[in-house]
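Feature request, filed as a ticket because there's no other form

It would be nice if the structure record came with a short human-readable summary line next to the tokens. Right now we just get the raw output. Example of a typical job, pasted below so the devs can see what we mean:
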Amino acid sequence: MRTVPDMGMGVLKWVLAVLAAVLAAIAVKVGISFDLNRWREERHRRAGERLQALCTHTMIYRNEDGRRVAETLMISPFGRLDCYCRRCGQSTEDRRLPEQQMRFWLQNPRQWRRREKAFIRAYERLYKIPR
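Raw output as currently delivered:
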């Protein structure tokens, strides 16, 4: 019966050493090229965009008669053609958009409430406000 020669642990040690050297080189490259401040700024920018996407730009409340009243949060300062949201800062040049949004949210108050809760959660997460 013929036996296979035992290569021993020498080859395995060399393979592990080469693998460790490659992983160390990759870790050094990633560590040098990773900028923590830029990563935080990018994360904050993306969270702000998500916040703007969640904003309804509308406030719905009940008046003294018990009727629902919708008020737009979009304003247009004097001398500007566009309007922007007072709460999230999103701007648009379409002046009909706030009225269309108000009508939609007034007809769908449950969706408005759900979107408002999501907006508040995202706002608290972005600005680290405790509950």
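Something like this underneath would help us a lot:
The longest strand covers residues 58-62.
The chain has a mean pLDDT of 84.
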